[in-house]
Amino acid sequence: MVAFAVRGFEWISLAYFATLGAAALVRPLPPASRRLVTVAAAATCAIVVLAARFAGDGVRSLLPLALILIGYFVSAWFAVTPSRAFERWLLSWDRRWLGDPATRFAHWPRAVLALLEIAYMGCFLLVPAGLAALRLEGASWAVIDRYWSQVIASEFGSFVSLTCVFARPPWVLDERAALPDRAVHRTATRFVERLTIRANTFPSGHAAGSLAVALGTISALPTFGLITLILAVAISVAAVVGRYHYAADIVAGVCLALVAFVILG
Question: What is the dotted CATH code of the domain comprising 2-264?
């Protein structure tokens, strides 16, 4: 009977956390990490089912904010041994497309670079902003469910690759970006170092998630969606400019968000 109460984004969340739990049992993980993943995955699945059964619409519409954070940090326990071959492949595309990625954007105007990196640091605000905008507009549950389904699928689709392959981000593995907006870049670098899992997600969660927010709101809120789309482009560009992501991550992230939009939109 509970299954009939479960909404689209809740099914996607259940599938994601069940996948993490199953992957933890077969992947070569340290025993402590295996226990943490399986317990976290089982507990989160239970929370989703209980919320679907007993919580009101207000709580259920906010729950994905916590689920995305949990899904992101739990995926980090799979980042044990980096794949050198995958890292070389990612770096090869950076050099093929950008030449020297560390200095490729050094000539860009300082103000432009600063704005890009500020947008990148504010990426995490887009997801709740999209929900807030829809609720203020009085969007129906069907619209909110569709929004969360697209965003959750894009975010979790980015994180789940860590169960199979782990690469270090370019700012860890290779030369760091040499940019003229030194104060802002330093702040953005510290933000990434201290508040992320320090593992590269392929596709990029930044690119996929921000684009999913734009696509998930643009039909109901055209102006908000267009502004968010511009911010999503800025975030994706900043991820490459600052060497927070590989260029291939961004391409894959955009493709993932578009697929989620076509299937779930």
Answer: 1.20.144
What is the spatial distance between Cα 17 and Cα 43, in angstroms, rounded to a whole number?
9
Summarize pLDDT for 122-138 with one digit per residue, the tens: 999 999 999 999 999 99
Q: How far apart are CA 71 and CA 247, in angstroms?
A: 23
List the chain domain ranges: 2-264
* Vertex 58: Cα angle to 56 and 59 (nearest 5): 70
pLDDT at 1: 41
What six digits make up the tokens of 188? 């953005």
The SS3 call for residue 167 is strand
pTM beyond cutoff 0.85:
yes
Structure confidence at residue 5 (pLDDT):
77
CA distances from 109 to 99, 119, 180 (A): 19, 16, 8
Higher pLDDT, 69 or 3: 69
The whole-angstrom separation of Cα 141 and Cα 116 is: 34
Long-range contacts of 106-110 (CB under 8 A, 24+ apart): 106/178, 106/179, 106/180, 108/179, 108/180, 108/241, 110/180, 110/181
CB count in 10 Å sphere of residue 253: 30
pLDDT score, position 4: 55
Alpha-carbon distances, residue 35 vs 16, 21, 41, 67 (angstroms):
17, 9, 10, 19
